[in-house]
Amino acid sequence: MLTINTTKLVTIERHISEEQSIYPSATGEFTAMLRDLTLALKIIARDVRRAGLNDILGMTTNTNVHGETVKRLDLISNDIIFRAMDHGGHLCVMASEENEELIAIPDPYTKGKYILVFDPLDGSSNIDVNVTIGTIFAIYQRLDPTLKTDGTMQDVLQPGYKQIAAGYTCYGSSTTLVYTSGHGVDVFTFDPSIGEFFLTFEKVKIPYKGKYYSVNEGNFHKMSRSIKAYIEYLKLPSSDGVRPYSSRYVGSAVADFHRTLRYGGIFMYPSSFDAPNGKLRLLYEANPFSFIMEQAGGMAIDEQGARILDKIPTSIHQRTSFFVGSPGDIEELVSFKELYS
Ligand code: P6P
């Protein structure tokens, strides 16, 4: 794994403002917007850490032991991001996994030139059993950046290659933030005693091939022939010892993706006869993950072999089959698809 473990003391705010200097015309608006988002992520990290103590677990039945109505943690996280981002004047519209429709910027506030799409707390059902969960986000520029009006559905339904930044947090043994703005992938670790995200790994690159595969094998008999053959191949011992691959599946996309990014291999959420477009959402899961993975030298495709970042979204919550990871592993998968096509 080609990673520079940095010893510099650099906070994410300083890292982003240093990145801003790459663009002489930068106005600082983007930096200010990321500062607001980072604040929201710090607050969500705090609430996730205290979920069990505050009786606001992921699957809370909406009433606590005192019979009081309690919001689920993913709805709380959604509110935190909205309240941190709605008044900064940087965004013209938002879209969230938790909101069926677009989220308008309230009228008193200025409409900016950026768009934020996010999953405020992906995998929140896992929090009740202390499994890693996370926040996933992507940022676009609106189609006409000179406008000061509400963002539109066309502004939101842009292909993934139009993303100008993307990232995710893992609320796990530590809180990490993985971020790219198109200049490589950097990893930050949160120090709660100081309240800062510190740069811990710079310009992360995924190995050409890995030794882990990650898929919910409970769906095996619902998958296509080519995917089943590929999974069986990964499990078949090879004379050079490269196979069998090890199986790892957390069931939380941020955890499975993060391990794949750092160690290599492949994460898959295939289509099935009862879920022809798989389960993961294109806008706020597959696209940000794919932007990050390509920046780290990996690949991300759907079951038809199409590049995820080239897909033109048709709705906010549309799903996509998703195969992401080391280029050597993705290319091997494609060869199985061609063989079985
Ligand atoms: P399954 C979590 O609910 C989630 O949306 C993703 O984080 C995760 O990768 C996927 O669903 C797991 O789905 O069907 O394997 O339980």
Tell me what the structure shows.
The chain is α+β, with helices and mostly antiparallel strands. The chain has two domains: 2-204, Fructose-1,6-Bisphosphatase, subunit A, domain 1 (Fructose-1,6-Bisphosphatase, Chain A, domain 1), CATH 3.30.540.10; 212-339, D-Maltodextrin-Binding Protein, domain 2 (3-Layer(aba) Sandwich). 28% of the residues lie in helices and 22% in strands. The chain is built from eight helices and 14 strands. The chain has helices at 12-20, 29-49, 73-85, 153-156, 225-235, 253-263, 282-295, 327-340; strands spanning 2-5, 91-96, 103-104, 114-122, 134-141, 165-171, 175-180, 185-191, 196-205, 212-214, 246-247, 266-269, 299-301, 322-325. The strands form two sheets. It has a nine-stranded mixed β-sheet with strand order 1-9-8-7-6-5-4-2-3, sandwiched between helices. A five-stranded mixed β-sheet has the order 11-10-12-14-13, with helices on both faces. Helix 5 packs across helix 8 (327-340). The structure holds 6-O-phosphono-alpha-D-fructofuranose. Residues 122-123, 125, 216, 251-253, 256, 279 line the site of 6-O-phosphono-alpha-D-fructofuranose.
